[in-house]
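Morning, I've got a small favour to ask if you have a moment. I owe you a coffee for this, so here goes:
>
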Amino acid sequence: MLRYVYKGGITGALYGHYFTRKERYSVVIILALIFHHINQLNTITMENKLRSQTAIVIDAPVTAVWQALTTPDIIRKYFHGTEAVSEWTVGNSILFKGEWEGHDYQGRGIILNRVPYKLFKFSYWSSLSGLENKSENYIHVTYEMWEEENGRTELTVILDKIPNEKMKGQLEQNLFKILKNLKWVVETQTEMAA
């Protein structure tokens, strides 16, 4: 007859069985080695992925910046005519279609997090990347924003899981153009509304 009494943790789960102390110790060592190897694999995977972070201050309230990031008609104005299609809720897809420097492209992803006026995060893959449309080739795009006391908004864009330096450079160059356009569109619309 086996008796099970949970004592907490891995060793606690093993404690209630009629294992000898030596057997429990062996199982704990094996589990520790497995977790160590899994952690090493995760570390190797994460070390091969790059990250980029850019910030910009926009002379407009955070509500205007949020609206620009999540409204297809405004996205089209600063993102070179790109059509954005989404239900804009966590777990739903996001699709970008357009032309970039003379090439038709399609970008796609899933909305991962959405906190209005604070955070918007989605996965993203582009046909222009030259990479196969597989989950490991998706980067993560995160917009973090907060309104300063003077009514201006600081927008930080974080790109995670970038597979190589070449793509990182291309993404940063493209992001610079997009953020410059975003700033102009939002500030112009804010001035016109005032």
Observations:
- Residues 1-16, 41-47 have pLDDT under 50 and may be disordered.
- The helical segments are 9-15, 21-47, 62-70, 72-78, 165-193.
- The chain has two domains: 9-45, 49-193.
- The chain is about 40% helix and 30% strand.
